[in-house]
Amino acid sequence: MSPTRILVTGATGYIGGRLVPRLLARGHDVRVLARSPQKLTDVPWSGQVEVVEGDLHDGDAVARAVRDVDVVYYLVHAMRARGDFDEEEAAAARTVAEAAKAAGVRRIVYLGALHPDGELSRHLRSRVAVGRILLDSGVPTVVLQAGVVIGSGSASFEMIRHLTEVLPYMPAPRWVRNRIQPIAIRDVLHYLLEAADLPPEVSRPFDIGGPDILRYGQMMNAYAVEAGLPQRPIASLPVFTPWLASQWVNLVTPIPRSLAVPIIESLQYDCVMREHDIDAVIPPPPEGLTSYRRAVRLALARERSGEVETSWQDASVAGAPSDPLPSDPEWSGHTVYTDVRERDSTADPELLWRVVEGIGGERGWYSFPLAWALRGWADKLVGGVGLRRGRRDADHLNTGDALDWWRVERIERGSSLRLRAEMRVPGRAWLELAVRPREGGGSQYRQRAVFFPRGLSGRLYWFAILPFHGVIFNGMANRIVYEAEHPQAASRVARPTRQQNPTPGSPRNPTRNPAPGPLPDRPTRQQGPTPASSR
């Protein structure tokens, strides 16, 4: 693959975030289109790429992004259960297709979905329609159609993992008997990288998949073997409709309903390769395609070592606000509620910051774990992300990271952390944690919850949870300061009760329990169509 100028859309997502550094390693000039460039602040390769701000519905931004580009990677798709996502996806694809044609782009590479002939779910139909729009653009296009992607942090892997680990006996929908051809993330990246260098006469869809064809139940039990768990008896029940199954997945795994619905819908069909024409244009990797069990083994090793490069958690949450917290002077004229707590501490600022940056996940939120847990389950019941997403790294946070039901909107390491809530609340909410050195020694801890209510329901929500603030926020501030002043007591902190048996050593198991309770919530920024790869 000769050095080229490449545009990657969906660079903040699961697959795009892994593709970009590999393109850079091959010597390519890479540009990314991002609705929220700040999400790229802490990725290791951020200083090596050109960033164009905008989304795929912004014709001017897309035109700027494709200017002087040779190859465009289209790695975005919506993962929503409702709304006009299919129309939005088609419109975005047309915008990119027209701009690429006008700019003289020599190739488009799109990651689509493996699918059978005949009637399809709405999400699969949308993926197919986007592929057709790009193929009809007049620009040579390769559509790589993949099924279940297995890798550390992929939504499909996490769903298999948690269903298997939580349930000793598995009542399951009929689709557990459907045939599926999973593919390892490393093999998906292999095909994506090589597709950019294909000759212009190659313009068509190609099925891609791993060497194994399995039933979904076999995939779960193969995971159990690799994870050192007993194999699970599985009973296929006809009463499990796709809707009911997605609710079940939402409750027993960290995968939110908005993401579970399209995954479950795609499992209603036998999704195996119908042709192997890809072998004629892109040979398999020199070491061969990765078997399913080896892909699981590799994913588990990554999880245990804390080396999860990207995660499904990076995907945007449907319905979560994406605009940043206005600066304080801009609040005039708006209804805003705040809860501010300050504490002086004898601890060194560095020690206090370490506690702040390590909050959430396995460690919990340092106050009233039961209230946080109940609030997390309540959020899950209404289709929110709940509290069990956890965090990718136990000790370090980066801009854009998911943190239970929050997302890191901004981090100034050593001094301040701003989280935006992605739980379902009638308004917008943030939580800010700050550390300042104190004159004469020690430090000061400042904690501020900010809530912008939406209508009467938002105001009622805030006043309904107000009585809990004294317990939740006050206890949280006290305990964080205590932990910094007594680091030896950290192991005795009330931790969330495990609701499943996560893989030993896995740093970011969505199994932690303390769910932020009666606390205002705050979504984070993320782009329109979700970066592809959640399947």
UniProtKB/TrEMBL annotation:
Residues 10-122 form the NAD(P)-binding domain. InterPro entries: DUF2867, NAD(P)-bd_dom, NAD(P)-bd_dom_sf, NAD(P)-dependent_oxidoreduct. It comes from the Bacteria. One of its GO terms (molecular function) is aldehyde dehydrogenase (NAD+) activity. Residues 310-330, 490-535 are annotated as: Disordered. Residues 497-512, 525-535 have a biased composition (Polar residues). GO terms for cellular component: cytoplasm. This is Uncharacterized protein YbjT (DUF2867 family). It comes from Leifsonia soli. The lineage of its organism: Bacteria, Bacillati, Actinomycetota, Actinomycetes, Micrococcales.
